[in-house]
Specification:
The complex is a heterodimer of chains A (about 120) and B (about 110). Chain A has no helices and eleven strands. With about 120 residues, chain A is an all-beta fold. In chain A, the strands form two sheets. In chain A, strands 2, 4, 5, 6, 9, 10 and 11 form a seven-stranded mixed β-sheet that branches. Chain A has a four-stranded antiparallel β-sheet with strand order 1-3-8-7, with no helix packed on it. Chain B has about 110 residues and is an all-beta fold. In chain B, the strands form two sheets. In chain B, strands 2, 4, 5, 9, 10 and 11 form a six-stranded mixed β-sheet that branches. The chains are: A mainly beta (about 120), B mainly beta (about 110). Chains A and B meet through strand 4, strand 5, strand 9 and strand 10 of A and strand 4, strand 5, strand 9 and strand 10 of B.
């Protein structure tokens, strides 16, 4: 029973390139959450998605960031035209259909470095 | 002012000591309180979950919530070197969306053998 799978584990992008981060939720989980962790800081909520729906994107920067969770396949967090300030660890979590935060399971994260 | 304040440490204690980790918060709407443990280069894992006020015990771990003081604690008894990690408090409210967690900065804990 695999946990939440994130890939890649490490991603290096030059300024101005696009970054695509993938998250496959645990089996049976239909709710996905993305969080960002800057160095020496706690996790900051970005977006909450269900299959084919964005439920809450109040933590997403207004520009360059987008997220999707299609009917088939993993959830994708997309960052266009990356800047140095986007360097961080991005964590995905998933929960069962009840959407309870009690059932949050985090992946191991993708560490994005912008050079 | 941050919604959730947590002393980042670092905190270093000898093996076997009782560890006390704390967070304060400003949003009185928070109802769900959690503690996560995060090892280096790993994702957070849920340790304790508490709804509203009171105490909850699980093995060597005890979580306390004092809503009147807006203060939560995690106690670790008989601490082990394997407890060395960063501990993050997190909380949420129905008003903001129970699924959206607000995290503290995390406290880096080292247990010395």
């Amino acid at each position: 029973n695999a946990g939440v799978m994130q890939n890649p584990r490490h991603l290096v992008r030059r300024r101005g390139q696009e970054a695509r981060l993938r998250c496959s939720p645990m089996k049976g989980h239909s709710h996905v959450y993305w969080y960002r962790q800057l160095p020496e800081e706690g996790l900051k909520f970005m977006v909450y998605l269900q299959k084919e729906n964005i439920i809450d994107e109040s933590g997403m920067p207004k520009e360059r960031f987008s997220a999707e969770f299609p009917k088939e396949g993993p959830s994708i967090l997309r960052i266009q035209q990356v800047v140095r300030g986007d360097s961080a660890a991005y964590f995905c979590a998933s929960s069962p259909p009840t959407g309870s935060n009690y059932g949050y399971t985090f992946g191991s994260g993708t560490r994005l470095t912008v050079v | 002012q941050k919604e959730v304040e947590q002393d980042p440490g670092p905190l270093s204690v000898p093996e076997g000591a009782i560890v006390s980790l704390n967070c304060t918060y400003s949003n009185s709407a928070f109802q769900y309180f959690m503690w996560y443990r995060q090892y280096s280069r790993k994702g957070p894992e849920l340790l304790m979950y508490t709804y509203s006020s009171g105490n909850k015990e699980d093995g060597r771990f005890t979580a306390q919530v004092d809503k009147s003081s807006k203060y939560i604690s995690l106690f670790i008894r008989d601490s082990q070197p394997s407890d060395s990690a960063t501990y993050l408090c997190a909380m949420s409210s129905l008003i903001q969306g129970a699924q959206k967690l607000v995290f503290g900065q995390g406290t880096r804990l080292t247990i010395n053998p």
